[in-house]
Amino acid sequence: MPQSRLNNDDVEKATTALLRSPEVQERYDRVIGRLAETLAPDFKGDTPLRITPLSTIRRPFSDLVRCRAQSGSQSLGLYMKFVRLSGQDKEEDRRMIYNLEKEVAVMRRLSKTFPSDAPLSVPKILAYFPDETVVITQENQGLPLLTRIAKSAKGFPGKRSLSGLERHCHAAGEWLSTFHKIAPFDLGRQEAPADLPAYVRLRLEKLWKSAAFRQRDVASILSYIQKQIAAASNEKPALRGTHGDFSLSNILAAAGQVTVLDFGMYHQASPYLDVSYFCQHLDDFLTHPLYLQSTTTALNDAFLAGYGRDFDPRHPLYRAYYVRHMVNHLIGLSRFVSLTPLKRLYQKQQYRHCLSTLRKWISKG
What we know:
With 365 residues, the chain is an alpha+beta fold. The protein has eleven helices and eleven strands.
């Protein structure tokens, strides 16, 4: 593992950002103590093992803490995922605990197919403390694919840059294809294509009050999805184990390796759920004026080629799930309240672009 370039002040700031209250500090200290005991046999240095926090990412339901474990010249990067429980909503807390248990179970089962040091990988679990609702994984090299594309795909990317991104997307497709061929684990719910209209109807309720969203949009979206499902009704539904959140931000891309993260949404569903989500997330870049259709098309083509050359993006279930993801993206873009005036103006422009794209998509039938 490469040595961190953070100095003591940086570490102190990171620690301060993480330990927001005495309760959080006590929890963190307990986990660090137990983790040090777990990792100690793997470290042969003469100095005591020290685990230092480097940075923190605060997510909606968890805190992701990047740390460095070090003893002498031995160094290991790791991530600690702390799930936050409200203590107020018992049902929601139970769901969060279950998703963490499921994530750990899925990663352990996938580790045989996707070793952490292989070209197609999942992170290696170093420790899991269910009583603290925390899982610790070894750090894999690479940047989120979302970050790589955001940095390198603006405007007219050079041939070398575009080729590199295409390789990453192709590898992501290979990873997903291999994953979908694994017999489903008996974990999570089952979601059949026939369940899709009811799900989308509930999600659309969040958009009905939007000034730009019309009641006839609701009717046309539901009609479109029902039409696509009917077109595939003669096919036997093939439910596979699905990631459930196969977004660009959950894929680490490095030279010669892709690592897929975050399996808390794992369940059995149509494989079109994951494939369409990746493609729709990639097409989200088109709501930004600096990214071109030709670039997203090239990257989508590379991803689908990695997934399988016989895959047909014109399949009705692919189209139905793609619309589902567009609806969810619109919901995210409709949340303007906490934004600054400038960001609110920009996000409203993105919302209008996405809604216009959705209407055009549906109008094509």
